[in-house]
Amino acid sequence: MIIFTYGADTFRSRRFRQELKNKFTRDIDPLAQSLNVVDGQTATLKEINEKINTGSLFVTKRLTVIENIFKNKKTDLFAALVAYLKKLTAANDNIIIFRDEELNTKDKPLKAEAKKLFAFLAQQPYSREFAPLTNGQLLAFIKTEAANYDKKMDLAAATLLINLSGGDLWIINNEIKKLVNYAAGDSITATDVKKLSASSFNENIFGLTDALSAKNKKLAIDLLEEQYAAGLSDEYLLTMLIRQFKILLQIHAALDARLSPADMATQLELHPFVIKKGAVQARNFSALALKNYLNRLIHLDFLNKTGQGDVKTELTLLISSL
Questions:
Q1: Alpha helices, DSSP H, located in 92-149
Q2: Of 163, 183, 245, 270, which residue has the fewest beta carbons closer than 10 angstroms?
Q3: End-to-end CA gap in the chain
Q4: CB-based burial, 155-191: b 16+ in 10 Å, e otherwise
Q5: Local confidence band at 47 (pLDDT 50, 70, 90 cut-offs)
Q6: Which domains does the chain have, with CATH numbers?
Q7: Which range in 95-104, 174-183, 199-208 is most confidently predicted, on average pLDDT?
Q8: Which residues lie closer than 8 Å to 301 by C-beta, 6 or more apart?
Q9: What is the mean pLDDT of residues 30-46?
Q10: CB under 8 Å to 118, separation ≥6 — which residues?
């Protein structure tokens, strides 16, 4: 069985992947001896074959998760993988999950070799795209998530949370966890969101990236410790830092193009306050440095979400390398 999930909404695709892994360990392999995760960005066909066909003698099926195969630089792998999978599907009942991010769109086009693999995977019965949720779908998502904690969130609160987070489900999920413990009674109001979430969006990450942009290692590490002491999760910190470095890279390009702050706010669809703060920070980095830090954070995010990284240690090392 081949399962293919892809799309810009990495939160729901990763949650779906985790649900499949949980079901596999619950129903088939409690010790997870026949469950493998492959970094598709660097994998070879030999490695993929070994992972698919290696497992416990006591488990009849195997589950192999292959992450981000379309980021692999070896373009000849794609055609070879199609041929391999076509032969495999006829005689192999193991489960193979391909999970990728946004693919085959205007912003993320695929080259000819990759398109053949994409077409093959997309036609599988268990292919699913996780596109970004619309505003109405985001409201429904927030309502459902709050209900999972026996809480209700009114429309004003949900709308404010969407606006503050930019619709990022990683951030929304983390904020809901904080809000359900903070809110009195069984309802979360806009006042709760303003008191608990707005301040953290405005201060926590800006303070940390301020220290990073100023190359103040001691302050940055102290602020990182404060974030953990406040109960923020690895996922939240990585998501916010990745989001902020993406914004800084956009602002840096806009500064190079000599755009006015007003034009930046319009073109980048960012609040003027974010532009003002970000412009100060962006000037302290070269474009290359911003790209390098962003790539390191994205890679760390991948390692964390596949159970291969110690986020706090890696973030501390990143800060120390400034």
A1: 112-122, 135-147
A2: 163
A3: 45
A4: eebbbbbbebbebbbbbbbbbbebbbeebeeeebbbe
A5: very high
A6: 2-129 (3.40.50.300), 135-320 (1.20.272.10)
A7: 95-104
A8: 238, 239, 242
A9: 90
A10: 70, 103, 104, 110
Mode of pairing for the β-strands spanning 126-129 and 2-6: parallel
Which residue type is seen at 129? E
- Which residue from 3, 16, 321, 273 is spatially nearest to 281, judged by alpha carbons? 273
CB atoms within 10 A of CB 72: 20
Rounded to two decimals, what is the model's pTM? 0.67
Phi and psi at 44, nearest 5°, equal: -105, 165
Q: Tell me which DSSP letter residue 194 carries.
A: I
pLDDT band at 225 (very low <50, low <70, confident <90, very high): confident
Residue 201: partners with Cβ closer than 8 Å, 6 or more residues away: 164, 165
**HSE (CB half, 13 Å, CA atoms) of 219?**
13
Residue 142's Cβ-count burial label (10 Å; 0-12, 13-18, 19+) is: buried
Distance CA 146, CA 192 (A): 13
Q: Which residue has the tokens 């795209």?
A: 129
Say how far apart CA 96 and CA 20 lie, in whole Å: 11
Rounded Cα gap, residues 207 and 318, in angstroms: 16
Quick: pLDDT tens for 61-84.
889 999 999 999 998 999 999 999
